[in-house]
Amino acid sequence: MAKITGLGGVFYVVKDPQVTRKWYRDTLGLDGEYGPQLMWEEETGDAPYSLISHFSDARYLEPGTATFMINLRVDDLDGIVTDLKEKGVEVLDSVDEGYGKFAWILDPDGVKIELWQQCEAP
Q1: DSSP state of 35
Q2: What is the tally of structural domains in the chain?
Q3: Separation CA 98–CA 86 (nearest Å)
Q4: Which tens digits make up the pLDDT trace of 37-53?
Q5: Residue at 98 is within a domain
Q6: What's the rounded Cα separation, in Å, for the pair 83 and 51?
C-alpha cells in the first residue's frame, strides 16, 4: 500500500519573502535553493518523525499572530539560545520538561517558532 513518507515542507504567505528568507538564513542558519531547508542526513537524535498536531485552543501559539507554529528540532538548545540572544533575537521563554528542552521565538512575520531539544531516554 502506498503511504506518506515524511513532511515535504511548510508553505505560507508572508509580507516580504526575501526579508523572511534572509531572517531564517541569518538568524537560524537555514537556507536552500527554494528557502529555509533542513537536510534529512543532518538529523540527529531519537525522533524519527515529523508531527502535525492540531489544537482547538490557539493560546499555545501566542504571542504569534499566525494560526500555526513551526517546531524545529535542535541538538544544543542552550547554545542556540545564546546565539539568538547575541543576534538580538528575543527569546520568549524556555523550559526543560524532562523529556525535552524548549524555547520559543517569533520570526519577522509573527510566526511562533518552537525550538526543541529531545532529551536522552533515562
Answers
A1: S
A2: 1
A3: 26
A4: 877 666 666 656 677 77
A5: yes
A6: 26
pLDDT in the model for residue 90: 96
> How far is it, in rounded angstroms, from Cα 35 to Cα 44?
21
Sheet with strand 100-106: strands edge to edge: 69-73, 112-118, 100-106, 93-96
> What's residue 2's pLDDT?
57
Angstrom distance (rounded) from CA 49 to CA 72: 12
The C-alpha atoms of residue 104 and residue 114 are separated, in whole angstroms, by 5
- Average pLDDT for 7-22: 86
- Answer positive or negative: Cα dihedral of 53, 19, 63, 66: negative
**pLDDT at residue 108 in the model:** 94
CATH code for position 97: 3.10.180.10
Query: Phi/psi at 62 (nearest 5 deg)?
Result: -70, 150
Q: Which residue has the cell 510566526?
A: 111
Determine the structural domain holding residue 71 and report its residue range: 62-122
Note whether residue 44 is domain-resident.
Answer: no
Closest CA to 7 of 44, 37, 49: 49
